[in-house]
Amino acid sequence: MNTQRLYKNERLRLRRDFKNLFNDKGRAVSSYFVLVYKENGLDHCRIGISVKKKFGKAHLRNKVRRYIKEVYRKNKEDFPFGYDILFIPRKGLSDCFKNVNYHDIENMIFNVVGKIK
């Protein structure tokens, strides 16, 4: 079985999942990302991504979504198990987004994920 695949049960998809996350939440904040997280009682992590229109045009919003999914997909074992995590990119990232690459985004994500707990 391919472990680098992003399975459906590893994604936050339902409205009630997002509502539950916002009702009882923890936050981890950096200058580029806000993470909203909550324990989910499962043996794996589930992720969601919310990019506001203020971030920029659609192609930039889609690109940052792809980068976040790719970072999670390739580094699942480095994320804390048993959490629902919502990634919200901040305006500061959109200002410098054209000048960053995948590895820069990966470092930014791990800096903020390290603040969970």
Automatic annotation (TrEMBL):
Reaction catalysed by this enzyme: Endonucleolytic cleavage of RNA, removing 5'-extranucleotides from tRNA precursor
Pfam families linked: Ribonuclease_P
UniProt KW keywords: Endonuclease, Hydrolase, Nuclease, RNA-binding, tRNA processing
InterPro entries per UniProt: Ribosomal_Su5_D2-typ_SF, Ribsml_uS5_D2-typ_fold_subgr, RNase_P, RNase_P_CS
GO BP terms in the entry: tRNA 5'-leader removal
This protein's record includes keyword Kinase: no
Protein family membership: Belongs to the RnpA family.
Annotated function: RNaseP catalyzes the removal of the 5'-leader sequence from pre-tRNA to produce the mature 5'-terminus. It can also cleave other RNA substrates such as 4.5S RNA. The protein component plays an auxiliary but essential role in vivo by binding to the 5'-leader sequence and broadening the substrate specificity of the ribozyme.
Protein name from the UniProt record: Ribonuclease P protein component
Originating organism: Oceanotoga teriensis
